[in-house]
Amino acid sequence: MNVAISSTSEKPIYQQLFEQISAQILKGELESGYSLPPIRQAALELRVSVITVKKAWEELERSGLINTVTGKGCFVAEFSPEEMLQLRNETILKQMEIDTSYYKSFGLTIEDVFELMKKIY
Amino acid sequence: MNVAISSTSEKPIYQQLFEQISAQILKGELESGYSLPPIRQAALELRVSVITVKKAWEELERSGLINTVTGKGCFVAEFSPEEMLQLRNETILKQMEIDTSYYKSFGLTIEDVFELMKKIY
DNA sequence: ATATTGTGCATACACAACATACACAGTTAT
DNA sequence: ATAACTGTGTATGTTGTGTATGCACAATAT
């Protein structure tokens, strides 16, 4: 498992976990059927509580990204490359709409946004 | 006062307030010395508690955007157009770094981002 | 059986939001 | 002058929500 959580971040730990695993799945880094580490092991590795990991896994389950089987484990769900691409774009666009509405509130044109973004990307 | 708060939003009310007033100041819509409405009046108008408005105003004060004078009111701080522009850019860039790191986590190039953003801006 | 896995429950803590009462500054009446 | 009134921000105490935790329970595999 390759995730990095920050205790100083304003974002809840479970959400950081969710976002990172989610991104990895939608990037295709974790293939279908891949078994996520047991929540206890993940908790130990990340030095957080079992509950926190479980909450992140629950979010993944709710988003349809993994399937959870009691006593067995959590597995990356099966879907076609097309489905995956669409899911990825939906996820990104959802966030992007929030981001752009923020930029708009400052009166920025899309050209302004591109200009600024080029500098830091 | 021209702000719109959403009770359904996941963001705290005081933060929505802060962000909107902050943006208006940095856009130059609220000129220096302008008097913000009294917190009671603002609270009544927005149908929230006095405390909630106060918390937002406190954030503005802490950011150096307004000056609070007990018994008198809260006034937009004085600064030059150059200072204002710089402050605005700093504020936007700070948020933009968070946004771009999210896009990067999905493996998007800056061209990918521009492509998607054009569609929704 | 025993070990491994996920699940449910009760709790501690932090924070957002609220109603109410308080303290300070300016203005007016005496 | 100074007391009283009005308008302003401030402080206190309470309630509800959400994050994170530990420990005990249920289901599965060998």
Automatic annotation (TrEMBL), chains A, B:
InterPro entries: Tscrpt_reg_HTH_GntR (IPR000524), WH-like_DNA-bd_sf (IPR036388), WH_DNA-bd_sf (IPR036390). Gene3D superfamilies: Winged helix-like DNA-binding domain superfamily/Winged helix DNA-binding domain (1.10.10.10). Keywords: DNA-binding, Transcription, Transcription regulation. GO terms for molecular function: DNA binding; DNA-binding transcription factor activity. It comes from the Bacteria. SMART domains: HTH_GNTR (SM00345). Residues 11-79 form the HTH gntR-type domain. This is GntR family transcriptional regulator.
